[in-house]
Amino acid sequence: MRIKHSNVLWLSLIPIIAIGLHFRWPSNAPYLAIHANQPLSSQWWTLISAPLAHTNGYHLVMNLMAYVIIAQLSDTALRSWRMPLVTLCLGALSSLGFIMGDSGLTSLVGLSGALHGVVAYLVIREFNSARLFMAVLATGLVIKLIAEGYWGGSEVTSQLIDAQVATSNHLVGAIAGALLAILLQLIVRSKHQASD
């Protein structure tokens, strides 16, 4: 699948903001991260800033490469403004899950929770149009989440990003992505039934 020229600007939005944040605040200013020990009311902006901030250049590049690859997987569910909107929504939801849960981490930055959510969202939204591919994608996502739950995050990745891999955030993101896709499916279905 190809990115259409009209989609390039929309798809570039998240990478441009993330790169801008990285170079504007290379030390990853603490006010961009979401902190587990602070109430959400005192850091509400981090629901959006935390997924867009990264610990270092390796972290940024790994997540942006995944973002671009995932964006290539859909011509419908993620086209145009949908990819950045879904990514930001799932980033906020996975950040909210982080602050509500107990992952053992004190703070969180990075797009990976949102990206796991986007994959789950894509699998459900596109399942009928590409059943085999989406089944393989779903299987890969589930295996990855189970492996992370059992063995934890990759040590190599932890060393590269100078942080512990937020595996619980990956799971929360995937669940949020699946629930968002199901909710949208139900809304679309009810609109079609109402118009018939």
Automatic annotation (TrEMBL):
Protein's cellular compartments: Membrane
The EC number(s) this enzyme carries: 3.4.21.-
SUPFAM superfamilies with a match to the protein in the record: Rhomboid-like (SSF144091)
Primary residence: membrane
Membrane topology: Multi-pass membrane protein
Domain Peptidase S54 rhomboid: 42-184
Domain of life: Bacteria
Transmembrane segments: 7-25, 45-69, 81-99, 105-124, 131-151, 171-188
Keywords: Cell inner membrane, Cell membrane, Hydrolase, Membrane, Transmembrane, Transmembrane helix
Protein name, UniProt field: Rhombosortase
The organism of origin for this protein: Neiella holothuriorum
